[in-house]
Every structure is written in structure tokens, then in C-alpha cells.
Amino acid sequence: MTLDVVKIQRAGDTEPTVSSVVETLEEEIVLGVLYPRERLVEDELLSRFQLKRHVVRQVLVELERMGLVERKRNIGALVKAYSTEEVKNLYAVRELLETQGARMIRFPVSEARLNALIAVQEQHDAAVTTGDMRRIFRLNVVFHREFFSLSDNPVLVAAIQDHAQRAHSIRASTMVLPERVEQARQEHWRLIDALRAGDTQRLVDLCSLHLSPSRDAYIEVQNRRSSTKSSKPADSERPLAQ
User: Fold this and answer.
1) In the CATH scheme, what architecture does the domain 84-225 have?
2) DSSP class per residue in the chain
3) What pLDDT, in 10s, does the model give residues 28-55?
């Protein structure tokens, strides 16, 4: 199960809007089509989406607001990249928010709300089976929104969604791996089982566990890069050409 297209195309989109282009680029970031530190060049976006320049700039402003893009002087807009320390800090906050969300769920959960969550997960299962990466991503977002809405605290739910969104470029390292997609699918069902059982501690533990693969994979890549750089001799230490 891999992402077979270089760029994500939306069927039926004849006149792209700010929101539709933002959604497309968001998906390309989380699915690893666009990489951390990759430039988003205005002229290329103009050509690709057939937009006016002021609309492209609105798109970039919105992506920056979402934490997916950063702007650097004399460079322009780049897909957001995180240092190891920034990843640890972001995921520490995510864990605090999400485990608190799990603790706030009151039991028993109504049959209607539980069935609504199950219905979303069944759609997620179907997307995993067909390998539809865009749909897997979107249904994953819906599943977590529905799950944390059981806390009945909309402010907390919004904070959880905001911080999850900021982690998109971090999650790209695992989002398209078939084994990780399957692992996440199984973890969703374990969350549902814990809801049925009314097991708060199990929910908290699962929420914490659910976050670690993308965080750890990103940090591992960063550490490998740092190790590679440090293993190269400095200019003064390199042998002179003969």
C-alpha cells in the first residue's frame, strides 16, 4: 500500500478555492509528497492550480497559520521542519492534551455515540483495505475528532486538533508505511474496546502509545542525519588532494 501519484488530484475540482488548495497541500505534506524544508514556490503554485497570485498568498498564509509552513527571509515559504527538541516538546504537549481528553470521557458512553465512532472506523478499515491514502488520512482525522469529542470539552478538542495538525510533517515519516497504517487501525479498535469496557486507564495508555511511532521515527531520522554530518571530517581535517 503506497501513494501511487506524485501529486494528489481532486476529482471534480474545476475551480480551485483557497480551502481546496490548502486541503490538497495539507494532504501532500502529511503523506510525504512534500518534504520538510521543501520550498513552496508561488509561481509553481500559480501554474499548477491556475490561481491568481493574491489567492496563492492566501493559501500560504493559511498553511502558515496551521503550522504546516514557515517563511524565511530571502527564501520564501517552506514545509515546516522540526528539530529533535521541537518534536519532543510538541509531542509532550500532545500527550498531555490527548491523555487528559481520555480521562475526561464519562462512562458509560451512549450506544449512539459509540456506534457513530464505530461507523467511522469501519470506513477507515475500508480505506486501509483499498490503500486510499488520502481517505485514510481524512478518516483518521474524523476518528480522533469523534473520539475526543466524547470528553464533552470542545476547547480541549480544538487544542488537540490544532497540535495534531502541526505535527503533519512529522507524521509523514510513518503515515504511508503499510505496517504503521495497519498498526494504527488496530489501535483504533482497541480504543473502541476500552470505551466499551469503560476502562479509563486503558484509554490513557493507548492514547500515549498511539503517538509514539511518528515521533520516534522522525527523531531517528534526525539523529541519523546528525550522525552522518558529525562523521564527516571538517575541512581542516580532510586530506589534501594529491
Assistant:
1) Up-down Bundle (1.20)
2) -----SS---TT-SS--HHHHHHHHHHHHHTTSS-TT-EE-HHHHHHHHT--HHHHHHHHHHHHHTTSEEEETTTEEEE----HHHHHHHHHHHHHHHHHHHHT--SSPPHHHHHHHHHHHHHHHHHHHHT-HHHHHHHHHHHHHHHHHTT--HHHHHHHHHHHHHTHHHHHHHHT-HHHHHHHHHHHHHHHHHHHHT-HHHHHHHHHHHHHHHHHHHHHHHHHHHHHHHHSPPTTTSPPP-
3) 999 999 999 999 999 999 999 999 999 9
